[in-house]
Design brief:
alpha/beta; 10 strands; two-stranded antiparallel sheet
């Protein structure tokens, strides 16, 4: 591919202007230039990782490193569309590289077959955003702390059967939001009860600068539910938050997620972990009825698509500093077909 001279609008080559035309119209040239200067680390190349990789490569980041030390298994053939048929036993990141790179030759896509647990702190500082999938709770918390300290945007997400979630910690995040201008109606122009109301003039918009502060993952997972205020909030909190705690504990205890081939054994363990986790959090067992176990096995491709779409969109918003980010959890329930944004953490 021939590299064109940087002579296009605002220092973007003609080729890039053509490739990203629709996006530049959507979120503006400044936002696209920020994206184009950003490097992202994506850990875990299962179904959700494949969706996030596709979305970020197509959006036009500068570079994406896919890091995964696991080998391709039979389970990966369900939702991981970047891995070609006949790749069983290959490294997951390396098997995903060719198709990922073909999505957009302008993005520098790399595969790293090492384990994220063996990476030193300096490794993470070369990235503008880090997105984890398939990681243990301890690894998530540790890498979130590294990112927080080094002002790197941090994301994590997973899909368990019909359920999926994402979490973001953007530290102190500044962004711009496009607002419709409010124009006052001059007196005597209109009659009726609405005369005094301000009118929204949809033809004129203005950019408003805003700032939001995020908490760390460790704090978000350690909410104290014993206070009166927390008990009142509990009624409004989605049970998916507690389901996530149960599934992260399962992952820590077994070193894997619940598998369809060991359904009976894993179901028993999930019920036991639910008792332990909800008990330690001081909340009622009724929050997660027994049938929750039926819906959290394997990676469902449509759930990966929804959660990967939201996660990719949030990374793009954070890097381009355009539009309000989700603060701080997004939960998706594929059975009900609904998603919910929750802000959980120290108040």
């Amino acid at each position: 591919m021939v590299e064109k001279e940087e002579g296009g609008p605002g220092g973007i080559s003609e080729e890039e202007a053509a490739q990203y035309d629709r996006q530049i119209r959507l979120w503006g040239l400044e936002a696209q230039k920020r994206l184009r200067a950003s490097r992202v680390l994506l850990v875990g190349m299962k179904g959700l990782g494949a969706e996030v990789a596709k979305n970020l490569i197509l959006a036009g980041v500068k570079g994406l490193t896919m890091l995964d030390h696991q080998q391709v298994s039979q389970e990966d053939t369900r939702a991981q569309f970047l891995i070609p048929v006949g790749s069983l036993g290959r490294n997951r990141a390396e098997a995903s590289l060719e198709r990922a790179q073909n999505l957009n030759p302008m993005v520098d896509v790399k595969a790293d077959p090492e384990s994220v647990e063996n990476k030193p702190e300096e490794f993470f500082t070369q990235f503008d955003a880090v997105c984890l999938t398939c990681c243990s709770r301890d690894v998530m918390v540790k890498i979130d702390q590294i990112c927080h300290k080094n002002s790197i945007k941090f994301f994590t997400g997973d899909v368990f059967g019909y359920h999926g979630y994402m979490f973001a910690n953007l530290g102190e995040h500044e962004f711009v939001e496009e607002k419709t201008k409010v124009t006052k109606v001059s007196p005597g122009v209109e009659d009726g009860p609405d005369t005094k109301k301000a009118k929204l003039d949809s033809s004129e918009t203005t950019m408003v600068k805003k700032r939001v502060v995020f908490c760390q993952l460790k704090e978000a997972l350690a909410v104290d539910w014993s206070s009166e205020k927390a008990k009142a909030a509990l009624k409004r909190t989605t049970p998916d938050y507690f389901l996530l705690q149960v599934l992260l504990k399962f992952r820590t205890d077994k070193g894997r997620d619940p598998l369809p081939q060991s359904y009976a054994e894993d179901s028993k363990l999930l019920l036991q972990i639910r008792s332990d986790v909800l008990d330690s959090l001081g909340v009622s067992m009724d929050l997660l009825p027994d049938d929750f176990i039926s819906y959290c096995f394997s990676e469902m491709a449509p759930v990966c698509a929804v959660v990967g779409g939201v996660l990719g969109q949030e990374v793009v918003k954070a890097l381009s500093q355009r539009d309000p980010p989700h603060n701080n959890f997004f939960f998706f329930d594929g059975i009900k077909g609904n998603g919910i944004v929750e802000c959980l953490g120290p108040k």
